[in-house]
Amino acid sequence: MRRPAPVVTIAIVFLTAFVAHAHFDSIIKEYRGVFIGTDRAEVHQKLGKPANEYAGEDDFEVSETESVRVFFDEAKKVKAIVITYSGKLDAAPKPKDVIGETIEPRPDGGMYKMVRVEAKGFWVSYVKTAGDNPSVMITVQALQKAG
Predict the structure, then answer these.
(1) Which is nearest to 36 in space by CA: 141, 145, 144?
(2) Which of 17, 69, 79, 136 has its CA 20 to 30 A from that of 3?
(3) What's the CA gap between 46 and 31, in Å, rounded?
(4) What is the pLDDT of residues 79-129, one digit of tens each?
């Protein structure tokens, strides 16, 4: 059996890395300038005064149909962001804009998909609830560190 030429092997490795990177580029990583690891004071600069402020989380009312809850670790750095769209869902992003791919709706109209981005240390999920008054919830969360 012949082994692939080194140039072919290099091209395959490069193409695989490019496709993985292109997919990562289409995955949501931040919300209005807030990333995993953003300091709490900077979150307040970017999102304004929270509607509710607790020891480890802040709630922001962005509009009548959009809210965000930001969770913090002990160092007051963002460890998770949960964005909720309710009511009229025109402003809600589509799954492809969040997780980089489309999601086939279930028969009831609901959707769910989670993508782990191990290399960057977070996961992201897209949830659309079923029913007459659906909502969309997008979560970006740091992966738990082993140990």
Answers:
(1) 141
(2) 17
(3) 10
(4) 999 999 999 888 899 999 999 999 999 999 999 999 999 988 999 999 999
Yes or no: say if 50 and 57 are a contact pair by the CB < 8 Å rule.
no
Whether 110 is in a domain gets the answer: yes
Mean pLDDT confidence for 133-138: 95
Residue 87 has, within 13 A of its CA and on its CB side, a CA count of 6
Distance CA 68, CA 46 (A): 12
pLDDT of residue 28: 82
CA-closest candidate to residue 32, choices 44, 19, 17: 44
Q: How many domains does the chain have?
A: 1
**Distance separating alpha carbons of residues 17 and 2, to the nearest angstrom:** 24
Q: Which domain holds residue 97?
A: 6-142
Mean pLDDT of 126-143: 94
E runs forming strands in 3-44: 30-31, 34-35
